[in-house]
Amino acid sequence: MILHSVPMMLSSSGSSLLWRQNGTHAPPPPSFKALRFPFSLSLRIGYRTTISPLSCSAETSSVLNAWSEFAQNVSGEWDGFGADFNPQGQPLELPESVVPEAYREWEVKVFDWQTQCPTLAQPHTQTFLYKSIKLLPTVGCEADAATRYSIDQRTIEPTTTLSFSYSVSGSYVALWSLGNNHLEVEHCLINPNDKESRVRIFQVVRLAETKMLLQSVKVFRELWDGPFRDGDQLGGCGIRSSGFASTPTTSASLVAGSWRALLATSKIDEHVQGCIQQVTGEKVIEIVREEKDLLLLPQGLWCSLQESKDGARLLSVGWLFEPGHAITSTCIFSSDSKLEEVTMGKETALTDL
């Protein structure tokens, strides 16, 4: 199995993508006996793959074709809602200064930001950028009153991006440096059944001597709202989703237990910062997910920060997009907090097989 990788140069020029292909379901995993081991201790040994000696500067036709497909699926205007959670998974209220007076008078708690995320990946120049926009909350349907509160603009560049791994589906994992011994892992997962639906989960961790400590979690639930327009139209009444932060958390019984996972992997070179790599290969394993390791979130989402016996750390997220079926993303760090591997998986609960 070959891991393809290419360099990332900053650019924001070029035309937007004007169409999207209809999604197709991935074929079922091969029917052979998989490995079985505890997820919390032994996952990292189960999906080692052989990596080709291609460097991050190798621009082969297969690399460019894969990136072009990814660009097609990730680019566009993504609208939805976002929320912040503490390390225990509890949603955080919006600052009082941004909450309309009417809500304060009615003692209504507001946990969700309405958001936009114009995203553009150029299919031929291997560039990637997005703006994560938060809109001030409004009372009722005040589309004309929508106002931007903040804009978090990001591009793939060596000064801020430690790693970027992607799947042709439009999913990706980015490792961002926040400074002061803080890292942010961004997991973007595309719904396998609906290419116009995705979630982005951010895990902020602090490096403390020999430990990685989870500081906060951010979640964005987004729907595709057309080709890239650089966020020129503010969201309003036409948005198709709703706030989710205060809805019930995912039941542990739906996530814990035995699962069969089809994994794709990218091997990270710690000496090359800021390059992008495609997750490749197909490895089928069985995992056991334990409730004690889970930080449960609303809407079928969860995340975790675990440590194996050899000191490796696993930062994982998952999305139960339908009963018994999930997509997951995991970053494996060495005992000295260096990113070693990124995996993306499609999982099926063994009780459903």
Brief description of this entry?
The chain has 4 helices and 19 strands. By secondary structure, the chain is mainly beta. It starts with a strand and ends with a strand.
Task: Report the C-alpha radius of gyration, rounded.
Answer: 20 Å
Distance between the termini: 27 Å
Alpha plus pi helix count = 4
Main sheet record? 11 strands, mixed
Helix content: under 10%
What does this structure look like?
It is a single chain. The protein is globular. It contains four helices and 19 strands. With 353 residues, the protein is mainly beta. The protein has helices at 39-42, 61-74, 101-105, 252-255, and strands at 5-6, 35-38, 76-85, 113-122, 127-135, 148-155, 161-166, 172-179, 182-191, 194-208, 211-224, 257-267, 276-278, 280-289, 295-296, 301-307, 313-322, 325-333, 339-349. The longest helix has 14 residues, at 61-74.
Topology overview:
Layout (H helix, E strand, L loop, with lengths): L4 E2 L28 E4 H4 L18 H14 L1 E10 L15 H5 L7 E10 L4 E9 L12 E8 L5 E6 L5 E8 L2 E10 L2 E15 L2 E14 L27 H4 L1 E11 L8 E3 L1 E10 L5 E2 L4 E7 L5 E10 L2 E9 L5 E11 L4
Parallel strand pairs: 2-14, 7-13
Antiparallel strand pairs: 1-13, 3-4, 3-11, 4-5, 5-6, 7-8, 8-9, 9-10, 10-11, 12-14, 12-19, 15-16, 16-17, 17-18, 18-19
